[in-house]
Structures are given as C-alpha cells and as structure tokens.
Batch of 4 targets.
Target 1
Amino acid sequence: MTPPPGRPGSAAGPGERAVPAAVRAVRAFVAAYGREPTLLVRSPARVNLIGEHTDYNDGLCLPVAIDRELCIALRRTDDVPTAGDATLRLVSEQDPAPAVVGLPPPAADTPPPARATGWARYVQGVAVQLAATGELAAIGELAGAGLVPWQGALASDIPLGAGLSSSAALELAVAVACTHLAGSVPAPTELARLAQRAENTWVGAATGLLDQLACVGGIAGHALRIDCRTLTITPVPLPAGLAVVVIDTGSRRELVTSAYADRRAECERAARALAVPALRDLEALPADAASRLDPVALRRARFVIAENARVDAVAEALARGDAEAAGRLLLAGHRGIRDDFEVSGPELDAAVAAAQAAPGCFGARMTGGGFAGCAVALVDRTRLDAFTAAFEPAYSARTGREAVLHVCSAVAGTSVTALR
Ligand code: ADP
Ligand code: MG
C-alpha cells in the first residue's frame, strides 16, 4: 500500500504522536459517518525479544505487546434501519480506500480473484473465518452467520510492514469487534488461531501464531513466553530498570512473504530428514546431522534448536533481573539468525552493531520476519539519553538512513471498551 503523503509509511510523525490513536480513531469515525461511535477496540503491536522463526517449528518465543496501538472506533449499523447495507465498513487514515465486506462474508473456499484486495483482505479474512467457525450465534435479520454489520474508523501508531505486526493488530481488532457485537467471548487462543487462519488462507502469508498470540495475550509489565505447540503463555516480568527499545531502521523489503515460505519449507525439510514431527522436538543436532541434511537445512535446524534454548535462557535471565545475560543472548540470537537462518539485512546488521556499541545497551538483535524493518535493544533505562545520542549518528553514518527509536512499555492485549 502507498501511504498518503505526509504520513511516512508508518507510525504517525512526531506532531501527530501527540494525539493518541484512540482519539484519532474517534475523530475519524465522526468525520466519516457523521455520528458518534459506541465502542473502541485497542490492539497493541508486538516486539519479539527472542525466539524468531520458531513459532511454525512448534517452538518457543518471547514477545512483548507494546504501547504502539491500532484502534478502531465503531458502531453497529443495524440499530437504525436506514444506516445502510449489511456490511462491515472500515476507513483507515493510512489508505483513502475503505475496506468493505458484504455480509454474509464470502465462503472460505472463494477463489482468490473473487476476494478483496489490499488491506481489506485482512478484514474480509477475519470475517470469513468467523463465519466459518459457526461459533457466533445468528443475530439479527441482516447479519450473516452471526456477524453484526458495523462501521468503523481505524487509526494506528504501528508502522506498517516493519515487523511489529500491524497485521495481527488489525486482524485481532476486527475479530474482537465482531465477536463483542455478537455477544461471544472466545478464548484468546481461539481468536489468535482464527486470525492466523485469516492471514494464512486469505492474505496468503504463511505466518505462525506468534504475532496473534502476542497481540491478544499481552500483559502489562511482562514479556510472554509462548510455547507454540501447547499455546501456553507464561508471563515473564520485565526488570523495572530495563527499557525495551524498538529501532525502526526505516528499511522495508518486498518479497518477504516468499522468503518466509522458503524458510518454513526448509525447516520442514530438516525435521523430516531428522525424523521428528518438528524441529522443536530436538534439544541438540544429532551427531550424524551433517550427513542427513543438506547444508541449507543443516544451518536452519542449527539456528532453530539454539533459538528455542535461548528463549528459556532469556526468560530466566529477565526473571532474575539479569539484563546483562539477557542482552548477551540477544546478540547471540542475532548472529544465529544472520549466519545460519540468513534473514537479516544490511540495515538490521548496522542497527544491531550501532546499538551494541552505544552506552547502556545490554544487547540487540533484529526482530520480526527479517530482511528489513526493526531491531530491538535492551537498554539501561537510566542511560537512554546517552544511548540515543550515540546510536543515531552511528546508524546514519553506517547506512545513510535515519532510524526511529521507540522506547516501549509492555501493555495488555486487544481490548474493547464502551464509549458511552
Ligand atoms: P507487519 O505485520 O510487520 O506490520 P505485514 O506486511 O504483515 O507487516 O502487514 C502490513 C499490512 O497490514 C499492511 O500492508 C496493510 O495491508 C495492513 N495494515 C496494517 N495496519 C493498517 C492500517 N492502520 N490501515 C490499513 N491497513 C493496515
Ligand atoms: Mg504481519
């Protein structure tokens, strides 16, 4: 998607940040529909501290839901007979074209050419999955498969395509809006699974469950140790003096989706050759791994096995307040994902190097799917100014780019509140 002018591909700029996304969403609703919204859904971004590309290997990860959020102000439209068609209709400040989904939504096996395009795919994908689960009770004459028609306005401070999971925030916000209006309260893991199916089948991104679980399961002040096989979420308290700094390198890459699918296939190939259901089932590479795996699959497997172990080691280090140990593990994770998993990129490597060299930094790594987007650094909260002062010129000197730093707090997952 091409962002409108003046809105640099991403989060609102410094001036706009002064107006919270929740307020902008309400204002946009009034401007678009000429009446007041009744509900506000808030859905956080997430940053993964460690445990990258492990989710689809049934493994472990350690994300944090962060205080950069996507908000939808909304109102059901079957409350007044003249309000319009049976649709879900959503406008976004990021795109002049609204997302409109007719109700009932298309069948789950609708061929791709007959589906929505652009960001409407995420909205439609969620509606399709909700209708397909049959979980929602049929409500109202206009509703399709229990979906209540509504109109909404979306505002977001989550940069798009930066690896902070604006897509999961959008999916979960739409899912929570729909289920809330239908009077249904699915378990967070069910919502996450449904959103993941929407992204896998309707958007065509073969993502694991990390993004959706982190977004819906966020807990203030905590990282989330997620076991992607059992879907168990264990909160890990973040030490008070530790700042989680997200570094948006300003770089974006096309074709990440196909590279992601390649990595997924390579991991599955490695698991098959090693005769385990998933790489998660190995605590170490077998002694004869080099003869059973091609060199690429060997590198992928080596990374995933080490990365799973790092998740527990970082969780333990954070729980005992040992930021230095956690930071060392992040840097080891970066080296593994760069050299063995091969999904880093020049800007991500530059950001990690500049962060590591800056005062107060315990450790840094790329975060998200890879190639471009964001890095994450663990920084001594009392030295944030010195960190920023050293990081920014060092990163620019290496790349010719400006990075945007977000000092983040850990927040609660997707929520809905009545506006009046
Ligand atoms: P990430 O999840 O890392 O941000 P993705 O490529 O998975 O990157 O998802 C980004 C896509 O999600 C955007 O291209 C757009 O289609 C959709 N999206 C996210 N936030 C918004 C928004 N505020 N308005 C419209 N579409 C959005
Ligand atoms: Mg995404």
Note: The pocket of magnesium ion (ligand 2) is lined by residues 165, 167-168, 211 (CB under 6 Å).
Target 2
Amino acid sequence: MRKTVIAGNWKMNKNLSEAAELVNGLKAELAGKTLNVGVIVCPPYVNIESVAKLAEGTEIKVGAQNMYFEESGAYTGEISADMLKSVGAEYVILGHSERRTIFGENDEVINKKMKKALEAGLKPIFCIGETLEEREGGTMKEVIAKQVKGGLSGISEQELSEIIVAYEPVWAIGTGVTASPDQAQEVHAYIRGMLKEMYSEVAADNMTIQYGGSVKPGNAKELLGMPDIDGALVGGACLKADSFAGIITAV
Ligand code: 13P
C-alpha cells in the first residue's frame, strides 16, 4: 500500500531563529498524536542542519528544495547531493515550477538532478504541473506527459520506489485558487496510468502522488479523500506550525 505524505516547502522563508521556532512549534503541535502520514519539512539550505537536529527523534523528516547534479567542483553558488545528505536531508524537491520558470530548469536538467539524488541516496520529490494557458489551450496532458517522461528518463523501477511525485498545477500555486478535488484527481489518475505503462501496475499502485497548490487545513481532507491523491506539498500554509499541523491532522 502506498504511503500518504505531507511535505512543507518553506521556499525562501525563515531565517535561522524563525526556522527553529517553526520546527519547534510543529513538534509541539504533533506531540502525543499518532500520525498515519509521513511528514517532511523542506527549509532553505542554510537551515537544513539545524532543523534536522531539532527534528531528531520525531516523525518529522527533512528535505532540501533543490540541488545541483554535479559531484563537486567549480560551480559557484551550488550545493551537491552529498552535502545535503551530510547535514541531515533525506529528501530533495526537484523540478518545482518556480525552478522551471524563474531559473530556467528544463526536463533534461531535472532528470540529471533526479539521477544524482538517487545515486546519493536522497529521495526526490519530483514536481510537475501545467500552466493555466496550457490547461485552457487543451495541452495539459501533453505537458504532463512530457514532464513525467523527461524527468524519469532512464530511472529504473527500483529507483522509482524512492521517488514521490508532486502534481502542482502552476495556476494553483500561491494563488489561493485550489484545483477542485475532481480536477486534481483527473490528473493524478492520468499520471498513475502513465507510470503503469512506463513501469508496472505494482509500481504505479505503490507510488505516492502528492497534490500541491493552495492546500490549507480547510481543503486538505477533501483533496486527500480522492483515490489517487496521496498527500500534499504545501507552500504558504506550512509557514505556520498550527496550519501545517492542521493539514497533517486533517488527514
Ligand atoms: P502554495 O501552497 O503556497 O500554493 O505553494 C504550493 C507549492 O508550490 C509547494 O511546493
């Protein structure tokens, strides 16, 4: 059976003391609760180590928001998979739409990062999603298919089991407009169908596919009640301990 996983993408928010406050707040919110979902927080690079230490011994796992695909060397400003592991990251978000649009990452670059992360023992949270123009223009499925095939190119079925897929419609990110449960379910089922064709029925059935885009405590339960929605990748609502905990406990 596949696992439900709620991940928080802090994006470029929280300095060192604010990061500690947020993770300590989350620990307090979740203390004593039996969780039937996985919980991941993805702070900015510079706070990964301190957040990982504060989360030690709890259910909270830590991830990064990006990494570079080379091992080491003259890549000023970049961070390697090994560095992330060495400070306590277990996951890494790859292919986020903000990386694709603001920083020009394409499927090929994302695929290289996926392979490097897997090789280093980091679990990718692999993001895909269409823009509003693509949805309205009728190319949504083509766009999703290209991103799935491009990002997973050359990745084995065994490696796939280490990956979480996150469907994040670009028009729903940070806009307050959430995809309806039916809209999200349609794409999730489409992605799972693709994985079945590319790999196997078992691999597709075991895949955790998160939804991301304006998830809040008030809409999480309905979204996660859909058969192919197995978690959430949360932006804005993960920046406060009570609202992130509200999403985790809503499911
Ligand atoms: P919001 O929850 O703020 O819409 O952000 C979603 C997101 O991009 C998570 O990666």
Note: Residues 9, 96, 168, 173-174, 212-215, 233-237 surround 1,3-dihydroxyacetonephosphate (CB under 6 Å).
Target 3
Amino acid sequence: MNILLLGSGGREHAFAWKIVNSPNCNQLFVAPGNAGTASIAKNISISPTDFKALAEFSVENQVDMIVVGPEEPLVKGVTDFFSNHPILRSLPVIGPSQAGAQLEGSKDFSKQFMEKYAIPTATYETFTKESFNEGITFIRKQSLPIVLKADGLAAGKGVLICQSYEEAEGSLKEMLLESKFGNASDKVVIEQFLKGIELSVFVATDGSHYKILPEAKDYKRIGEGDTGLNTGGMGAVSPVPFADADFIKKVEDRIVKPTIDGLKKENIPYVGFLFIGLMNDNGDPYVIEYNVRMGDPETEAVLPRIKSDFLGLLYAMGTAKLDSYRLEIASHTCTTVVLVAGGYPGEYEKGKKIEGLSRNKTDSNSIIFHAGTKVSELGEILTNGGRVLAITGVGKDITSALENAYSRASEICWEGIYYRRDIGQDVLNLIK
Ligand code: AMP
Ligand code: GLY
C-alpha cells in the first residue's frame, strides 16, 4: 500500500515508524514531516490543510490511504473533502468528518453531546456576548475553583482554572467582550472543577466497532512538580498503574460505548482515533475533554506497546473491518521524555545543531522520535520547533523505562536544551 500521513510532530514520527515496519507498506509519504520521518519515509512539502494539493498528490502517486495526525485538518474538513472528491471518494481516510471533529473543535458541542448521551462529565453552561450578565450571575453561584473554556481551538491555551470569583469574572469579560482568543472565545463554557487524577484513554474506531488502545498519563506543565506554563506535553507514561481493568471497564461502559453509539445515532461519520481526557475521581471516570486524534507525546508511549500490525489496524478502521482485527498489546512499560528548546512554551530560537543522535550499538530499550527538527543543507539535524525530540524508554516497569529514556536523553545536546527530570515520579509515588 501507498500511504499519505499528514503532520510533522513526534506523534507523526511514531506513526511513520510503525507504518514502515508493516509488511504491507509499499511507500509512505509524510506531509510535511520532519527530519525523523525523512529518515524512514518520503517527506513532501504540502501543508496538511492544502486539501487540493493533497488530492492532486494522492492521484498522481496512487495513494491507497490517508492518515491524519493533527486536529486542524480534521476540524477544517479534510475527510469530507476527500469523501466528496470525484476520483478519491472511496479512498480510506483515517480521521473523522468535520462534524465528528466538533467533539474537539467546539467545547459547547462536546458538552451538549455528553449531556444528550448521559456521559459523565463536569456540569456546565455556555455563554455568549449576549448572555454575558447571566454568565456573571452563574459564576457567583459556583464553588471555587471555576473552570472557563473557550469554545473553539485556542492552541491549548483556552482553558482557565480560576481560583477567585474576581478572576473568573475578569476572564469571562476578556474572553466574551474583548475576544481574548479571537473567534474561539465567542462562546465560553463555564464548568464545575473536577477532582482526581488525570489520564488519557485512546480508542480506534471504524464508526461502528472500536478497540481500546493502551492508556497513558501526560505531563502538561513546563516545570517539574507540574508547575509553570502549559505546554503541548512534556512526557508520558503507559500503562498507567491506577487504570486497572475495573476502571477501564467503567470507561468503556459509561464513556466509550455511548460515545460511539451517540455518533452513529447523530449520523456523524467517525473513522479514526478518539482521545478521551479523563479524571479518575475515586475510581469513577469523568470526561474532561475529547480530542479527535491521538495525543502527542502520548502516542510515542502508546504505539511502541502495540504488538499487532499497526498498518493493519489503520486499514481495518478505514474499511469498516475493525471487528475482525486482533489487537495485541505488549505488557512492557513505555515512558516518554520530551526535549524542548530553551524558552518554550514562550519564545525560543530555532536552527540549533543537535548532537548525540546516533549511537553505535543497537539499542532496543529506547527510541528517538523527532518532533520539531529539520535537515540542513549540509545534512545536519537542526531544531525547528519548541518540542524538538521525544525519547521513549522501554522497560519491564516504570523505573527501568525511565532509566532507559533518561540515559538516552543525557547523550543528546544542543544550545538551550531543556527537559523535565520528574516524568513518572507522581505515578511511582502512588504505587509505593
Ligand atoms: P483541556 O484543554 O480541555 O485539556 O484542559 C486543559 C487542562 O485543564 C486539563 O488537562 C485539566 O488538567 C484541566 N481541566 C480542564 N477542565 C477541567 C475541569 N472541569 N476540572 C478540573 N480540571 C480541568
Ligand atoms: N498531549 C496532549 C495532547 O496531545 O493534546
């Protein structure tokens, strides 16, 4: 098969690494990719949101399947574009329709959906500029802290957890009346604060059937001890020890099944991944948010645990045959540490030369996934983004997986490199 993969992060390098290792992969193209995908597949310089150029490329290169990594092309309707295309309408696209992508693209839509299908989540109400005064009254009736969410995509910055009524009121004003997040905050969801421990559950679906993939825990803050600004994700651990079989069964019965059934009832085509951000409150799961793609860096910890053919999984999703796919998961632990540019998630420099990537000895205990990297004209690997590399350690438990990840990370350097040294420590403290 010829496959076209959209995206350029660590998630996409992990997808590419799995796909090229499948016996059924003929050629893999990545649009636009990074230095890591360039080393195992063919990068093409087309933007994931330039649907016309992607379609032309697919026709010319006999692409058999498209796999969408990030949310932006999905929210902009890439899947619908292909399913309405005169030549490419039967090409499998792994990623939901624009209507399905609203589960991530609109917090108000996802909350209404969860309410309609009785899926456990924080109680909420949605407000607009017109109902600003009602919003203020609503805030005054909540207990602290209060969670405010911009309805639309806001580059991971649209959620505010307010510790006082004054802060919540000020933030609501900025979002609704002063367009703090542009159009994304034309509507604001105000919701109850959920207590507990967070984790992410990943589901693959063909629209009718589903498979639950390994769960993971993500580390969102830049600083150790979960302090400082939010980032795209600084590390991940899979499996998560407190997500035992009982808990995952509750997630399946109360959240996964009603979500897949609800999408079907709404006639919303959904072939792709569903990432459910959850709060575990004393053993009961509550949905914090849906994402309509895999997580990054969670993918870098989850995919190395999938033993069965990953391209086979994607193809079964794209051809409505997921019920006959046998998913096999390895029992080992994966921990991912993200190496970032100095200054990230604020301003940072690009173009720093990365040293220490190659190793002479063969090593199956750690994997380097590239995120923001590129190859220079001289063939050097340079930093090209905030999150630069994601290093996954593989081990029999969290401690050994972390040792492997950190030992590999210590061999790598560039000017300004930073990473958290405490990935997985909270989980280790819980199981002590
Ligand atoms: P989101 O962008 O929806 O992932 O939210 C960012 C982060 O805010 C989540 O990962 C949670 O840590 C936190 N968060 C969002 N909603 C809630 C909530 N209702 N209660 C507690 N924490 C929340
Ligand atoms: N790591 C969180 C995300 O991918 O949204």
Note: The pocket of adenosine monophosphate (ligand 1) is lined by residues 122, 147, 159, 191, 193-194, 198, 220, 277, 288-289 (CB under 6 Å).
Target 4
Amino acid sequence: MKDISIVIPLYNEEESLPELGAWIDRVVSSMGKSYEVIYVDDGSNDSSWKVIESLVAKNPDVVHAIKLRGNQGKSQALRAGFAATRGDVVFTMDADLQDSPDEIPEMYRMIKEDGYDLVSGWKKKRYDPLSKTIPTKLFNYVARRASGLKLHDFNCGLKAYRHEVVKSIDIYGEMHRYVPMLAQQVGFSRIGEKVVHHRARKYGHTKFGLERFINGMLDMISIVVINRFGRRPMHIFGAIGFLMFLIGFFSAAYIGLHKLYLLYMGEPTILVTDNPWFYIMLTMMILGVQFFVAGFIGEMLVKSRHHTPEVHIDRKLNINQ
Ligand code: UDP
Ligand code: MG
C-alpha cells in the first residue's frame, strides 16, 4: 500500500510526458509520502510508450505503466489504471500538462483531513477555446440538475479519490465525464471540489472533437435512466406501454360507439378505416404492447443476471484487498 497513486491516461502525448513526470516527482516527493505513478497508454501511435519505458526504467519503484491494445478511450484507460492502484488516495490527471501537479498536496489534505470521498478539480479560469467552454457550461448545468451534486466542473481531468471509490465505480464508455455521478450512485456522498489552476495545452492537440457533446449527452441520459430504472425496467416501460394501450383502447371504443350511434340514428356512416381515430388506435395499441414486452424482457434480464448483491463498503481497516 502506498499513500498516493497517480493515474495518468494518455493518448499521443510524447512531448508532455517527461516534463509531467519530473513535475509530479518534484511536488510529491516534497510531501514526504510514498507514491506511485501509473501511466495508462491508450494505444498511442507516437513514441509515448518509448518515453514511458524510459521513465519506468529510471524509477521502477515509483513509475508503473499499462498499455491498452489500441485506442479504447479515456474511460477504459482510467478503468485499467484504477484496477492497478495500490494507493490510499488516488489521483487522476491528464497527461497534457493542462492540469497542475501543484494541486496534489491540498487535494490530498482534503481527502485525508476534511473527510471527502472525492475531490473534483474546478477549472474556474479555463484556458481552452470558446467552442469548448460554452457547451461545457451547459453540460455542467444539466449534470448538476440531473445529479443534485453541487459541482461546477464534472469533467475535470484532475481529481482525487479515496481508494475505496476507485475500486467501487464501474467506468466504461465515455463515463469519465461523470465520475462524480458514478461515485454518488454507489453511495459516496462526500463529494467536494477545489478550484484548480489550469493551463493552455502546451504540446499536441485535443483528442476530443465535436462528437464529445453528443456522446456526452447520451451517456448522461444512460446514467440517469439506468440509475432510476435499471433495477425495475417494468416501472418505466410498463407505465408508458399501459398509457399508450389505454389511448388505443379508448380510441377503439370511440370508433365503435360512434359508428353504432350513427347507424342507430339512421345517418350515413363512413368506413372505420376512413376514421382518423382508427390509425391512432392501431399505432397506440401496437406501441403499447411493444413497450410492455420491452419491460418484461428488461425484468427477465434483471432477474436472470447472476446476482451477487452489491455491497458498498465504505472503508477498510487492516484488510488486504
Ligand atoms: N486521452 C486518452 N484517450 C483518448 C483521448 C484522450 O487517454 O482516447 C487522454 C489525453 O491524452 C489526455 C486526457 O485524456 O491526457 C484528456 O484529453 P484532452 O486533453 O485531449 O482533452 P481536453 O483537455 O481537450 O478536454
Ligand atoms: Mg487537455
């Protein structure tokens, strides 16, 4: 067990790595704590891995590295890194020198002394183009509303976690944007933030294009829906299906009664298929049944999943692993 683990996901960051490594060393060794740095190379195709190999060779007690097979995304890189950590407090940090290692001591203190489970960086003054900062504001607003967490900057690469947090969250897809929400979902409630110093990208270029916003929003919807209904799909699908079926049923009743009424009054009637309610009835009943069936299938999936009840352990004392 070490005091500090620093997980650094990276994709084609060869120029930044030596500088970052030296900076982290400088800051953390002055804290007098034991630490490890875990570089996770997310399938870089520049010479990042070569640079990392030389960093490991220089300081094998501290520097560790994982290389993913191909570019799998930042979330997968974090997942691999988290699994390998042995530190009491775990940090994540981008490799592009935009996040400052100088924040480590204070964030460490917030975890150890103030009792936070997770401390998220807040790039209050950002050095990124407007095309990025404006949508990000909207994003954070929606995330705040959806989660109830009072954070300004969900997607900051610089974060500090208690060991238990990184071992409990299930991060995949592009969920790295919502790690605080994932932590909240497995029961960690002391989630705070610290204003952190941010810098413009010094080398290379950003690895996320415009698709970040679309994917990001879709992921948020998944997180919220799975969180609310993941264990009881029938409650959402069944409700929608039932509602639609009702609309269809009453449309059918209306068509039938209306026709009978006209016949009874001896007035000219139209064919049922010429009545617009017929099509409303048809679609609603079909969709309603489909939603219902989706709910059933969802329930069956939940039930048949080999289910070990999740235990969310808060801390461990004198227990290895
Ligand atoms: N990154 C990664 N895999 C990817 C994309 C990015 O590991 O597929 C890393 C990247 O090398 C950097 C961090 O994630 O260390 C943040 O990426 P970037 O700086 O490009 O994002 P931005 O700061 O523009 O949001
Ligand atoms: Mg960056």
Note: The mean pLDDT is 91.
